[in-house]
Design a protein that fits this description.
single chain; mainly alpha
């Protein structure tokens, strides 16, 4: 039996022991395992400031007339 086989058996036995745990306990264990890797694996939610930053531009916003022209062009493409 190789070391890899031993590890596979250990993982299989461990999984059999924890698969009946409540979901919250399984999630807690998973979080602790990921934290032990030393990496921040918590997904970061975008803030409003981040999202506004996506729309930022060095150009001035379009004028009302330019917006109306853009809308007309899009409508003509959509309904032409």
């Amino acid at each position: 039996m190789t070391m890899e086989d031993v590890r596979t058996d250990e993982v299989r036995e461990f999984w059999q022991r924890i698969r009946d745990w409540p979901e919250q306990m399984q999630l807690s264990l998973a979080a602790r395992i990921l934290q032990s890797l030393g990496k921040d694996v918590t997904p970061r939610r975008k803030t409003l400031a981040d999202l506004v930053g996506l729309l930022a531009s060095d150009e001035p916003p379009p004028t009302d007339h330019e917006v109306e022209m853009i809308l007309q062009e899009e409508r003509s493409r959509k309904f032409a």
